[in-house]
Amino acid sequence: MAAIVLPAEVGPFRRMQSTSQGAAQLAGDLRAVTTDVKEVQAWAQGSSSTDWAGEAQQSAVSARARFAVRLDGGEAALDGAVVAADRFEDRLRRLENERIALERERTDLGEDIETVRSAIAHAGESTDLTGLERIAARLRHRAGTLVADISAWETRYQAAEDDFVTALQAVDTVGEGRAAARAPGRLDPTDLLHQLSQRVGDPAALAAWWRTLTRAQRECLVTEAPHLLGNADGIPVTARDQANRAYLGGRLDYLGRRERDGQLTDAERAELEKDRRLADLVDRYSAPDPDTGGQQLFVIGFRPDDYSGDGGVVVSLGNPDTADHVATYVPGTTSEGGDLSGFDRIDTLHDTMVDEGRGSVATILWDDYDAPSADSFTDVHELADIGGVVSTDDARVGGERLADFVDGLRATDRGAPEDLTLIGHSYGATTAAYAAQDGAAADQYVLLGSPGAPAPTAGQLTHGDVYVGAADYDPVSLLGLGSRGGVGALGYDPAQESFGATRFDVAPGSYRVEDLLHNHTSYFGGRSLDNITDIATGGDPTVDAGRAAGGDGSYQNLSELLAGSTTSSGGEWLFDRGKDLADDIGHFGDSLLHLARPHP
């Protein structure tokens, strides 16, 4: 039998010393350092006033001016290094994707070779080997092509590393930094910042302008104005993430030094705690996404000093600019941007949406408004704190901000239009409803445990689809005006049949009075979560009847629920709580009555 020559096994790739993840970390560190240097330089170039007078003042002003000049060389060098690191990260990411494809071809080739080798081994003397010879020839051609492709890939990889090293070496001395500062083509950030500030507030215009910028111009803006850029709706998610990480890194460095020096004020200590909480979250999701191989977490909003010190934050699991399905979650009362208390919910939702297998996914925690605060929703005695939710002002203002955010997601979306779901819980549901009324470009809205919406019907609220999750024994969801009354301080009950939304099936919750507020916080589990997931991935939820005065939609109103659940609890719990129970229910009732009164 004639010998059939099969190709030799194609050997493994050389080990990648540099990775896109490492390059991204380096670029982020460089941006943070550059941001710090630019802030110091701005101080040095700022006001010439000092606590001294006469010759001492002149000397101080002169020294500060010389310091600013020296810093300018360092700033120019860092600008160059940041651009080089960002370019290196992009090249490595493309190389990694190419490597995955080549590794897949290498595996497939090996399996095909083994198949032919087995066929040859079992062939007899009388077997016609012509067909096997043709297959072997094709395999040899594939192997030759693959070896050449791997060699070309390794050349490109080596070139990427060499180019990056060369770019860093071009600005790694004091003289080279000064030369970079004096270079005729050096960017002037003043005009760029002016153009940016003119477009902030118009997401579509900002997105269009951003697409015209060079890499160097974009990196200049990231390090010159990270706080402005990181919160600008219409800037792509990756750039906002880079800016916010740079701003966070600069804050951690500054506050960390003050902590080590024993200079932290109480307010700064609280800020540092919140900043570290966000940094810990970033670190926890620093590894590539196991499903996509891309970046897992994006910080696309960071306002640590806003909202009376509560802070605002927007984080996303998955990139909404490239995802097929995007779900934005708006938390309600008790949420503070700095505590990231709603993150576990978008984490859970992300997993369930991915499991549906209906396309790529991004889930966003949007906590960038001044939600009313309360101490707890886990103890009846604390229900009095809900009396602080007495006005729609925060929801209205928050809804306008949320609508701009959604418009920004639309403006920076890449590829096929994303399917965008806005999910609001509690006071966040009221805020999401105001965003809908303000024209937010969401495809569907999910209102969970809503205390009220600003319109009597879904059609008057939005052209999008409106879904409502309202547990039978959730007292907060009974605050809106409905067919059997309601407090109405925050508007209409969207779970009403007359509202015209699709009410989906959720568990009714426990009927014990001490569990009522737990019912209000339990929408991200069980069949409620299943239905939210279906809505957010283009599926069909299980539908429930809307609330109505009689018939199948009949329901207990708030006063009936409080009275009935108190009686139902009885027994051991009443014995344990005694008089405290009456006081607690009294506090709760006072709070709800407070909601009904007009407020300035």
From TrEMBL:
Q: Where is the DUF1023 domain?
A: 309-477
The keyword Cell division belongs to this UniProt entry's keyword annotation: no
Keyword line? Coiled coil
Q: Does the keyword tRNA processing apply?
A: no
Query: Which segments of the protein form a coiled coil according to its record?
Result: 78-112
Per the record, a Pfam family?
Answer: Abhydrolase_8
Protein name, as recorded:
DUF1023 domain-containing protein
